[in-house]
Give the backbone structure.
Amino acid sequence: MSWESKKITQAHLLEAEGAAAVVSPEHRLPDGIQPGETMLEEVRRNPVLRTLVLSMGVYIAGMGTFEGFKLNEYLDLQKKKGQVKQQMREIDPLNRVQQVREIYGDFIQLDFEKFSSLQKSLSQTEEQIEHFSWLGEVRKVDLPGKSADVAVEKAKLEPALEPIPSRRLDSQGIKIEEEKIDTTFLRDVIEKTFPKNWFTGEVSAISFSGKTQELPANYGIKSEAWADFNRNTKKVTFYELARRQRISANMECLAHEAGHANDWGTDNEASFDEKAGLLLDVTERLNSEDRYQSPYVESIKNDDPKREKYYKATEYWAEICEAYFRFPRDMNFNDFKLVSDWVKKNDPNFDVEKANDQRIAMINTYQYANRGNK
Amino acid sequence: MQTGAINKEKSVSISFRGVVLGVVTFEDGAVVQFSEKADDRCKTFVNKLITEGVPSVLHLHDDKRLTAVFRNTLPHEKKFQFELTKALTAGGYEIYKDMHELDQQIKQLVNCLPDGEKIKKDVLANLSSMSYLEKTYIKAKLEEKFDQFLPAS
């Protein structure tokens, strides 16, 4: 509109200079505009223009307020993202989860409830920020509530026990006799010869299923299952094959399974940082030249190299746990220290050699006492 | 039994309360020979294992479940040495392996210490009777000690 004001001024100049008594057609003012009238005056005078300008003003003010709210929400999201990140840093100060993911990929679902909840919240917030549009609707953010901030306290439940049918040699060491590991004996061995909370709160049940558990064809091994450990239910189940194993062999198998119940994926008493740290420490041992070279661990194969490595780490841990509860003096110190430190976190006075000797003595006494009863 | 490095030793000797009862010789982990001494019980036990195989456990994985499977490791398999020594240890026998390489590494580290150091004398005097755990502990501690004096790479 300023060019019109300029034309008016030029017309005035021409008039003032007296160069022409009549204003040429191209310099004539538009209809309805008086010479010397500004646009503001024109808007004031013209009811149509006045209504239009007022409506535009109201619209701009409304939009400004609306966008102001959205900006506020956007800033809130950024703030909340910062808070969630801060909480994650407190739980995982060394960013171990990142290291774990670099080695093993994303398939590992570490069962660390609080951290998982924070991760979910962070990705949700980031997604909202990423899709934040000045024209779009801002969705509400579900931030971790109190339930995520409060550590879930697992009940320290004693495992439910069932007798495990086994076998033993007769007093001459020739004939195989049927025997069973009864629940009183099993509870005694668990309480007296394993660290505190190695079973309590970690294993929900030790049971026997009379089924012969054939292995699914996709395993590629024609064999039957001896026992299994279910990570979800935390239950150890022995199968029919256990009936043909000696008591000591079934107890060794149980010690191995208990190692799985106390690893980074299932241990209920370790912090996120400790669990991720254990997995990284085991990974380091797995890559060491003087590692515990269990042929079984070395033979694990999987099409996905990261999954293969993870399964190896899982079995490496269970194998060194088993070695710790069977022949600790024959372990490499670095492996021994890994298990020992983990055990002593909850049971600082645990004496492994004494406990192992006691377990062997208890098994022998149990077999001997039961022979006498027959 | 030394569980740190497998299939490196050519033979393991089986003892009970310090008395040598037999020697098993291996080649690449598989058994080649068992030279028994006078003990019949040990002879029967080892012969049974090297004929029928050693009962061993392996685990099969899926994302939710770990299944223990039983199988016999047979004498011609590379992992037989590992499983046999494990079974003999579990059977209460003492297994001695030659830890020559590890001993040399420890001696090399210990010899870097000044002659007056008590630890040097102790380690050299007791090295032969130390368990694998003790030897690897000494080695780790000596390496730690020397790392303090070495410039960071």
Summary: Residues 47-91 of chain A form the longest helix (45 residues). The beta strands of chain A are 160-161, 164-169, 176-181, 205-208, 225-230, 235-238.
